[in-house]
Design a protein that fits this description.
- The complex is a heterodimer.
- Chain A has 13 helices and 27 strands.
- Chain A is an alpha+beta fold.
- In chain A, strand 15 and strand 16 form a beta hairpin.
- In chain A, helix 1 runs parallel beside helix 4 and helix 1 runs parallel beside helix 8.
- The longest helix of chain A is centred in the C-terminal third of the chain and has 27 residues.
- The longest helix of chain B has 19 residues.
- Chain B is globular, with a radius of gyration of 14 Å.
- The chains are: A alpha+beta, B mainly alpha.
């Protein structure tokens, strides 16, 4: 029996009987994705755009209601851009620059995100998760129309798995009854309470924070500016340890109240009680309609390994963080960006399976960084000891009057992509005087180039970026194509391209991965060095 | 670079000591704790160097007897 666990904002993949359900023996698919949330859909899209056949299974028929993940970081937008849905997301989303921080009822300070010039995308956009997911699914549909081998199966619930050396067998429940399927690779994107993780008996390690949030999407016409407001110990009644206000598209606002652990969920979710909190915050003269509300708890923890043979976990199924800093969905999308090209090469026989171990290494590194940052923010927002509270309030007091203390105020360190310094796929830095921000392991910084932007020119394959020097237009290394993009520092009169990629060097060659992380860099083209670095980036060379 | 001075460096130290206590005059225990925290953050920022700060934290730790 497939009972709905939540109601849908958009019905996007209604149940349809598949030929697999009438097959004599279970059909084997190269890749099966479990979970049709943003991470699952992005995985299917990433692989399908590479021509890798992928079947996605979800036990509902579309996107759940509620803003949930709301703040999408620049890196996520850049990844979405490579998938072909960045523009649509940005158009719908809300961009804000000013944030205000309050302690009790005093404004402590305000900051301006003022993104650095010369990037295609802003620091981040506010876009409710259902819209984010819908744009991804719409892109999947367009890709399918172009022949991408992607299948989305709604009301397909995985009830059991058996993992073998060369495949995984799945039992699936549908409205027409159960069927079996096989997968060469199974990607678990089924969320924080991942049933797949449970089926495999795998644990999470880390810290459970005894805390919860009451969140509400409200539609109101009010005079609040398009700013992010955060309160420490808000003085309006019953607000809890912190409160947060964000603007969304369509006149909707998102409000979070940190209400603590010992709460009566049923009581808290009653409309009159939610209204009481909202009225205390907004004042009695503001008219609003509650569009959606929910209570959620969070933890900061991760699986010990994300890859278990043929089964690979991504997103919340693999790791969870507290929401401060918007590192949940944003890191999940980076998981997909990391895994997609690697699995594609392995599927095509162009790289060994152990390349997938680097997904573990790199994304565990990312998860640990996110957990560290979100844990620190959580401790600052809800100090766990008396002395911690004393120091926290000292920072807030000082920040009100002195600039030095403002960087210490931690209401969340915004998600940025991590660098893979010293990890197994990262190559050598042979560019004397090269800027630190584009050292091997880092994600390519964007820069203006002629009348466009650099990242859009880099694309989704291995790329050689040649600045103020030459390199062969095309190469193939062990069957893997390498395309060269040439640029001159004069292509950007603002000087950003030179500052971000040359530094003190006179010229540069960058080897860049399909996920636009830098493998290695040199001053001039050296065929042997490039070949070695590319092979190493595909786990074909020992470090 | 660690540059923590643990040899005398305050001119007219008695006078500074009196200033420090005077700053706490009339404060409750909680207010004193709050002020100490602010002072630590202010001085830490002034020092800035992480090595020196680490050495200072070490020197300040409770002694294991």
């Amino acid at each position: 029996m497939l009972q709905d666990r939540y109601s849908l904002a958009f019905k996007l993949y209604p149940y349809a009987r598949s030929a697999d359900q009438d097959a004599q023996t279970p059909v084997r698919h190269p890749v099966v994705v479990v979970g049709g949330g943003p991470i699952g859909i992005a995985t299917a899209l990433d692989l399908g755009l590479q021509g890798v056949p992928v079947v996605l299974l979800d036990d509902h028929e579309g996107v759940g209601k509620g803003s949930r993940a709301l703040c999408f970081a620049k890196r996520t937008m850049e990844i979405a851009d490579r998938y072909g849905c960045g523009d649509a997301m940005q158009e719908k989303g809300v961009v804000w620059n000013v944030g205000k921080v309050f302690h009790e009822d005093r404004k402590v300070f305000e900051f301006n995100l003022l993104p650095e010039e010369g990037h295609r995308y802003p620091a981040f956009i506010n876009l409710p998760q259902p819209h984010f997911e819908k744009f991804l699914v719409e892109r999947v549909r367009a890709a399918q129309a172009d022949g991408a081998p992607i299948e989305l199966r709604g009301k397909n619930r995985v009830t059991a798995v058996a993992v073998h050396d060369d495949r995984v067998t799945l039992e699936i429940e549908t409205p027409d009854g159960p069927y079996q399927m096989e997968a060469e690779w199974l990607i678990g994107c089924d969320g924080a309470s991942s049933p797949l993780r449970g089926m495999m008996g795998l644990e999470f390690e880390g810290r459970v924070f005894k805390d919860s949030f009451l969140i509400a999407d409200i539609r109101m016409t009010a005079d609040f500016p398009t700013e992010r407001w955060f309160w420490f110990e808000p003085s309006f009644k019953n607000a809890g340890a912190s409160a947060l206000l964000h603007k969304q598209p369509d006149g909707v606002w998102r409000i979070d109240f940190q209400i603590g652990w010992d709460v009566d969920r049923q009581e808290e979710m009653k409309e009159e009680n939610i209204r009481r909190r909202l009225d205390a915050m907004l004042g009695n003269d503001v008219d609003y309609e509650i569009v959606w509300s929910s209570i959620y708890t969070f933890q900061c923890r991760r699986m010990e390994k994300f890859r278990h043979g043929r089964v690979i976990f991504a997103g919340d199924a693999a790791h969870q963080v507290s929401p401060f800093g918007a590192r949940g969905a944003n890191s999940g999308i980076q998981d997909v960006d990391n895994l997609g090209w690697k699995l594609g090469l392995v599927h095509k026989g162009l790289a060994p399976e152990r390349l997938l171990d680097s997904y573990d290494e790199e994304r565990i590194h990312g998860a640990d960084e996110n957990i560290l940052n979100s844990t620190r923010a959580t401790d600052f927002i809800t100090p766990k000891s008396k002395i911690s509270h004393v120091f926290r309030n000292a920072v807030l007091e000082l920040a009100e009057h002195h600039a030095f203390a403002r960087p210490l105020v931690n209401s969340g360190r915004l998600s940025v992509p991590c660098a893979y310094d010293g990890l197994c796929l990262t190559g050598d830095d042979a560019l004397a005087g090269g800027p630190r921000q584009s050292r091997p392991g880092t994600p390519c910084p964007d820069a203006p180039v002629q009348d466009g932007f650099l990242l859009r020119r880099l694309g989704t394959d291995f790329t050689l970026l040649a600045i103020d020097t030459d390199a062969p237009k095309e190469m193939t290394v062990d069957g893997i194509g390498l395309r060269c993009v040439t640029a001159r520092s004069g292509d950007d009169p603002t000087g950003a391209l030179a500052a971000r990629y040359l530094g003190d060097a006179g010229s540069a060659i960058y080897l860049i991965r399909p996920d636009q992380h830098i493998v290695a860099r040199w001053e001039r083209f050296d065929e042997t060095a490039v070949q070695f670095a590319l092979r190493r980036a595909c786990a074909k060379e020992d470090a | 670079m660690t540059d923590l001075r643990l040899t005398p460096n305050i001119p007219d130290a008695d006078s500074f000591y009196a200033d420090l206590l005077a700053a706490h005059e009339g404060l409750s225990d909680d207010e004193s704790a709050a002020m100490n925290a602010r002072l630590i953050l202010i001085l830490a920022n002034h020092i800035g160097d992480r090595g020196t700060l680490a050495a200072a934290l070490d020197a300040a730790r409770p002694v294991q007897r």
